[in-house]
Amino acid sequence: MDRRSFLRTGVLATAAATVLPKFSFGQSVGGNTIRVGSVGLGVRGTDAVLEALHADGDVKIVALADFFQDKMDAACEKYEADFLGDKKDRFDVPKNKRFVGVNALEDMLANGDIDAVLLNTPPVFRASEIKKCLDAGKHVFAEKPLCVDPTQARYIENELMALAKEKGLCMACGTQCRHLPNVIEAVERVREGHIGDIISATCSFTCCGFLEGWSMPKNPDPQTIEFQIRRWLSFIWTSGDHYVEQHIHALDAALWAMGDIAPKTAYGVGGRDAYLKYPQQGDRYSNFAVEYDFGNDVSLLSMSRQENGASRLSTSWATIRGTKGVLNIALSGDPQKITGESPWESKPAHVNPQVLKHRWLYKAIREGKAGNNLAPLLNSNFAAILGREATYSGKRLQWNWIKNSKQNLFPEDKIDLAGKRDITPIPSPSTYKLS
């Protein structure tokens, strides 16, 4: 089997084709008002409300939820000022539709009078929140990543996907580049053989700062649950580490271009900047480099970094190298470019990919289909977790490991914001135990 055939028959090659949206961008599809509630009001969650309003002219925000009152107050103050611009008339969230506390989502589902839910909370809670929304008969937008461990990934794959289909509910996810028209065209060109047989790929997401989260609790004790949830980007159990939480954008772009195939093995190296304080700045790493082997002499080198003073490596998410050319998947809406025997360069995509991912969901709802584009992201999510665990353990891990691992980072006990949770040691290959 040649490489192109290998990639076309990858684990999710068929599923990938179903998430190349063909509808007219910037065009609102008519129908009844879709009433939306949003959960999680951090930086990403606060912006998601505006993006949802931009995505469809007949979407209305009618309920909000968050763990913390101060975050609710700050978000609503922003919404009630000029943040929403001319979309402000479709924001209608009275105080009795603002739900706060550890049961805020449940309260919103029971009392919010909503059709769809935006999930922007720490990703450790994503799978359980999807289940609650589906049980309540609500459509779901789930921000990336979908989960932080193999147990939750399999739960989404084996149970929640089927539940959504059974109930006729739509689910959309937070990967951006799959909705950009010029990236879609670039990937289609790869599928048509414009760069020949794929040989290798690289992807990177490197930042010039260590992202910790933007909400500092009054109690500075990092052992408290409140501290760890407010500063969730710093902790492995809440974020899955930045390789899973943020780098998944770049990894997803590369895997998509390669055919949404699953790697056979992963091996990684990484560590943590010596200047980061433990446990005040959590227990996660600050840099990763992971090599994925797909067999048939096809490999992917993936690099991720969040360290103060470091430069951004490049302005691209992924580079795909073939026997006849090279595709560079650029950030955001920048031009996409193929060099080699069939050179091509796209026009810039003057659209906001954050808006397009919401538009996909509302279009699916209006068409009355059980639309679901989670499967390809879930494949990338599995791969990211595999790379993280290979790096922590220092072992070359097989894909089958992640399909059988018992690792589960979801808290066994009911969340008590005033309670405490032990912080795991910084992972080291000499002591790290795989589960």
Written overview of the protein:
- There is one protein chain.
- With 435 residues, the protein is an alpha/beta fold.
- It has 15 helices and 15 strands.
- The protein folds into 2 domains: 3-177, NAD(P)-binding Rossmann-like Domain (Rossmann fold); 180-349 and 374-404, Dihydrodipicolinate Reductase, domain 2.
- The chain has helices spanning 3-8, 13-17, 43-55, 69-80, 104-111, 126-135, 150-167, 181-191, 225-230, 236-239, 242-245, 248-257, 353-366, 374-393, 399-404; strands at 34-39, 59-66, 98-100, 116-119, 139-142, 171-173, 198-207, 265-271, 287-293, 299-306, 316-322, 325-330, 337-340, 344-345, 397-398.
- Strands 14-13-12-11-7-10-9-8-15 form a 9-stranded mixed beta sheet.
- Strand 4, helix 6 and strand 5 (139-142) form a beta-alpha-beta unit.
- The protein starts with a helix and ends in a 31-residue tail after the last helix.
- Residues 1-30 have low confidence and may be disordered.
